[in-house]
Amino acid sequence: MDRLSWYTPGESMEEILIQAGQVGIYDGDMKQSSFEQGTASLTLQRVIWADSSDPDCRLVLHHSLVDRIERHHKSMFGRGGKIIVTLKSAGAGHSPGPVASSGFNSLRFVFKQGGEEEFYKKYIDALNRQTWKRTSSSSSSGGSRTCTLYANPAGGPPSQRSLSGQLGQEKKFTEQNNRLNQTISQAFEDMSRLMEEAREMVNLSKSITERLRVNKEDMTEEETLNFKNNLLLLGVSDPVMKSAFGHTASYYDNLAKKVNDILLDTVETNGEMSLPEAYCKVNRSLVSELFSPEDLLNACQRFDDISAQLSLESLADGSFRVCLRNSPENASSDLVSSLTSP
């Protein structure tokens, strides 16, 4: 890692041969790194790495410091495909970088989202061409850390854009991220306002329920009107509230009617529905108050009392299903029961 240096602004224009996103740089065989996610850009002179989370962090590995490179495909437990770079010793005039001294003579580029195959081919070609030997000293790396580079994960053929031209692209993506953050913040603000309104609704419901419990039906018309208006705003026009009815036959009769209305279309389409499936569907529909599976079972057992189109049938294994009252399966079951009864 001590062969890496900081990117210098104002250097001569370079043509980007290929780019890859989600690339980490690791020293030797180390498992951890301070540079685990960024964009690697290959030119004829060097590899330039830009940190995805820190726009000021850009590193350079010059081709003159590369002895050889090897490609390793992603293993079953690996983080991604790798390019292992064996490094030469740095000269006396080597530009400073993030690491002053390292005990390793190699580093790894880890491609967490793939792309190492094409990057490796371009890298080999750039090393073989040895173009850096013919470039001016103005193309060498070192010094400051203010030039901007942005990812192009798709890679592809050599781009005609210069490194300095990446500024506009990074600015565009930054603006998009800012707009996205604003949208998310607005969504959470809307959710907070909705929760405040729901809290008012719950308080009103508790007030009316307590009055019903203490004074039976002795409640003001204004409270009743406010209660109904708030329910309508929430899309609940005729709720079945256990807090209002209690564990009474009236509650289960009303719940049975609701269950019949909610499940009828589905049962007519599919022929039947298991009780757990019915519980999930009814619970999603009756958003005003969640109820227990026992409540659903008691309500379904009231189908006969309210002359519902649906019927609850007990199966041999002890489970229950909801089916149409006049379905052929139900009729056959009734016939068998009548023939086998003493």
Automatic annotation (TrEMBL):
GO terms for cellular component: ESCRT II complex; late endosome membrane. One of its GO terms (biological process) is protein transport to vacuole involved in ubiquitin-dependent protein catabolic process via the multivesicular body sorting pathway. GO terms for molecular function: phosphatidylinositol-3-phosphate binding; ubiquitin binding. It is found in: Cytoplasm; Endosome. Residues 1-139 form the GLUE N-terminal domain. InterPro entries: GLUE_dom, PH-like_dom_sf, Snf8/Vps36, Vps36, WH-like_DNA-bd_sf, WH_DNA-bd_sf. Keywords: Cytoplasm, Endosome, Protein transport, Transport. SUPFAM superfamilies: PH domain-like, Winged helix' DNA-binding domain. Component of the endosomal sorting complex required for transport II (ESCRT-II). Component of the ESCRT-II complex (endosomal sorting complex required for transport II), which is required for multivesicular body (MVB) formation and sorting of endosomal cargo proteins into MVBs. This is Vacuolar protein-sorting-associated protein 36.
